[in-house]
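User: Fold this, then the next.

Assistant: Folding the first:
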Amino acid sequence: MNKNALRPVVDDQEPRISVICLGPTGSGKTTLLKRLQEAEGIDNTYSPVPTIGTNIYDIHYINKSGKKQTLSIREVGGEMASLWNNYLDGVEKVIFVVDTSNLCQISAAALMLYTLLAEPCLKHAKFILVLSKMDLAYRQMRNEALLMLQSRRLLAELPRPPTILEAAPLTGEGLPELKAQLTNQKIKPAI
């Protein structure tokens, strides 16, 4: 009799993804995550296709002990907003991306964000609100976006207020700060 035949078969389970990236369609989630992943070809000619379904991005970094680490982030397309709650179990960090160059989208984004903040399974999750496409937005549009998102209320009333970051994925601005937030590291000053 084969001894291996008596061993139980253990299915390889999908690794738990504790970071999720959400936001309306066209907010810049894919470009942001590809830049964090240090993918090639992200420049002013890059034109992503809206995500249908989900994508998983592996972000590589060096931890505080000097060891290589990988952080997996699940991106769920904006078209799937009605199904987002299917992906929230076990999530520890939420990256919520808002396109500040599209004021028409911000009201809808605010509603989506406040719905997520009210989710019981996310009550302990850290929220990172990314004001994206800052390279395209005027300063006034950024201020308008913060007003429409009721950022002062978010920061004042929530027991765990979101971290608000500005980013320009095409130019890479704000990405070191986002990566530091995701990997619990401090930003190293530029030399």
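Now the next one, as you asked:
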Amino acid sequence: MMTGGDRLLLPANMEPSAQDWMSALPEELWDVPLSSLALPGSHDAMSYCLDINSPLVPSEPDTFRLLDGLLSCLTRPLIFKWTTTQDKSIEEQLSMGIRYFDLRIAHKPNDSSSDLYFTHIIYTHLTALDALLSVASWLHSHPKEIVILACSHFEGINDQLHQAFIFTLKKLFGSKLCPRTESDLTLRSLWSSGYQVILSYDSETALSHQELWPAIPYWWANQRTAKGVISYLEFEKDLGRPDGFFVSGLNLTADRSYIIKNPKQSLRTLTFSNWESLRKWLEDQHPGSSPRSLNIIAGDFLGPLPLCSLVIALNQKLLKKNSIK
């Protein structure tokens, strides 16, 4: 495990500027609210380390759980290739420029320990604590980069586990945690205060903790095609953007009927085959505060697909305006 002083050794083809893209933005953007900048996001960020042999989460339907118990040799490969949304570690995602992380926290059934994991139908190898230690270490080496950690789902987590996890989060990130009472969320103000982490915690348990933010809206199309995703996102844009942070999800979703009928496909092949249409739509988007502007844009397979660079580049559009709203 890395210590606070360690620096990541990056592949030769990884651009150093992506690691510190926030601090490299033109000074004209330092006073723009973070919710008006374009921020790359990782959907189901920890699914790169799913454990194919772990139990199913208890919320899965009983019929599916029974089938998995009887025919795991068939169900597990399907589960694995349709629940894996990322193939880069959290440190690599940070260094590629990802600044929003969709973190689905859970406690394994019948686990006597207090260890928490991440989940997407099945559980991860890596514990939540180990992953977040890596985030804290990375931030120590990149003091002007700001991340948004969106913790949600919390399957199998009771109040005692919530409180213990929140205590761990507060101890781990300490003074880097930006309280929800902070009103001036710009790069300049966050840098001057030493804040690097906006921690969203989608549970009523968080209400008594000023260091934790409420759930961040996520526009999820629940569609299998780029056309369906784009149509949904355009509909949401017509209704107007929420106040504050919000996520536009470019991630595709296939139902179980489609998965069964297309055994040679995977979420990866589906994402890649639809990418060109998603890319063209993404390049036409604008950050900012106007009703149809976007903020966080999240997707899948962010290593091989250039979503990060495309989203970061959208911020240049703010410079072309005579005044930044």
